[in-house]
Amino acid sequence: MQSVMRVLGLLLLLLAAPSLAEERAKTVLLFVPEDDTVPATAGFSRNFRQTVQREWRAPVTVNIEYLDMAWFSSPEYERALRDFYVTKYRSRRPDALVVFADATPFLLKLQQELWPEVPLLCILNDDFLAEAVPKSPYLRGNWADLDIPATVKVALQLLPDTRHVVLVLGSSQRELDAWSWVEQEVRSAAPGREFIGLSGLTLEELRQRVRTLPEDSVVFLIGFMRDSKGQNFSGYDVLRLLHADGGSPPIFSVHKTMLGSGIVGGVLLDYELLGRQVARRTLRLLEGEPASSLPPGPFEANEVAFDARELQRWNISESRLPPGSVVLFSQPGLWERHRWLIAGVLGAGLLQAVLIAVLLLERRGRMVAQRLQLAVLDSLPGSVAILNRHGVVLRAHPASVQLEILEGLTAEKLFVPGGSCLETFREAVRTGPPEMAAVAALLQDVLSGRAHEGVVEFRGFTADTWFELRARRLELPEGGAVVSLVDASPRRRAEVDARRARDERAHLERVAAVGELGVSIAHELNQPLAAILTNAEMAQRLLQRTPTDISLLREMLQDIVSDDKRAGEIIRHMRALLKKDEFAFGHHDFNELVRQVLRLVSTDAQLRGVSLTSQLADSPLPVKADGVQLQQVVLNLVVNALDAVGSCPAGERQVWVRTRKLEDRAELLVEDTGPGLSDEVLARLFEPFFTTKSKGLGMGLSISRSILEVHHGRLQAERRPGRGALFRCTLPLG
Hints:
- By secondary structure, the chain is an alpha/beta fold.
- It is 48% helix and 20% strand.
- A five-stranded parallel beta sheet has the order 2-1-3-4-5, with helices on both faces. Strands 14-13-19-18-17 form a five-stranded antiparallel beta sheet, with helices on both faces. A five-stranded mixed beta sheet has the order 21-23-24-26-25, covered by helices on one side.
């Protein structure tokens, strides 16, 4: 059943396809007498096409044929046009034909020859022309009235003193044929006025005649497509020339396209509106309505419109215009032309009052802010000064306790209003300690804008005194900086005491770690010492033989030297770990530091039954650090790992030590197969005095993290996948 329905649906689509294709192929053919350089033709044809394409329910093609009949009007030209269009459209059939004005006689003949059954809508210039269109189901004649009499009457109503009515028309064949009819229209609307006809003239002759017309004349420019010499023009361009001459009388017309270019106005045919109206009637033809059933009569496309500039030029009051008149191009009044100036003048007084009130409030607020600023400055420790961009002190607040920064120089003398703080520090660079160079450089960078803010610490004149100078750039157009000077001695002494205590704890931790390795160290030392003793006894026996085996004796002595160096190296490493010194930064290979620690604990790992595996990076890992301190960190992590696997069954006690390079950092990984780390242990692992060992002090990991922070490194603890713990140590390469 479903297959049958699909077949029926396909058949319906196939049957509907021709109608759909026909709907998409709608074509309208529009013939106009002039080309689109004529404003009236351009406005009509453009709006016709846009309206048809916008309001038709499907795609439609609008072809426009410009016949140029005003400029080329000979019988030979019409025959050539006929041959051209017969050839062009012999095999193409439009759905509707539209012809405008003087192209109608030509297209009536062409329709009968090519498309006798295609509906044709004719748009003519007057009713008697429309009545002359043959009666046929495929023809309809309408007209768009060029209401010349109404325009003449409106002109005489506005200019009642007019005595001469002047008609201007060109010399094309169409204009010559229309002359008598247009003259009759003008004369009938202006009885009692003298008629002056300007036709059959060149353009220059026309301009001269218009300039010499009597003052009580009114000109009616109906069209000017060609002059007597055969030169082609458009009425729009001729109007602009006549108006530009300056001596022409008032000019009226019946074409709205001329409004704004020099005519006063009139009853004007709106060609754009006409194009839209004709397009909507053409759509009825596309829908299948016969042409003979379209409404007869005129299109209402006229508008009584005037140019406000021309009205003002000829002193015509707008109150005298006919009811419903449209006035365009109005000159703006005083308010429109100078609204900003008027608004500024009116608002100046109000603005001045507001500014005075604002200034009074600002003054009051500034005084409150100054009192608040003084209170804040009084509460600040040390001395504070505001400098301009040249380093000169603008304002200063000295400290309550005066300390000697340099010999004979106190903060009160340094921050003297009007004195140059920058020059004082520059002088100190030449005569004072080296730290002054950093202070002067910081001030110079902040004042010049190279730095926004900075801090420098430097030693004072007396022993164990330190000062901190902080400079911050002022975010002001004129620049400057705020400088504060604080006694940093208490903080520095506290830091020294804290570092000393930390070093003491670190030393004790190293001593404890080495003590735990005592058995393995003794075992490690016993091997080279036993070898030395054996080789020495053998050497004695060789010396008693005759002859003495010199080569064998030399080998034994070499072995004694090697074993002695080995024992000395073990003792040296022990002494380095047990030695109590200040930090000594230097360049080291992190791989070598780890390797030395592993040699120290390898025997202890064997005694505990632990498999200690090392995987060190192939290339050196250079670091700038205190080697002993870093070895303490490595030793602590490895010993903790050995302790962690102590409770594991034999064969499962495994510890891995790895190093690798990560971009600009060196990384150490210590992993074990011990019981791992619980959430509580992970949260508190690096707290001082927290330990999971029964006899531990809880300081090893805390000290190790502190050591790494001093070296700009990090120490992290993680759960090892599967079982055990993983400690990750990172250091910057340098």
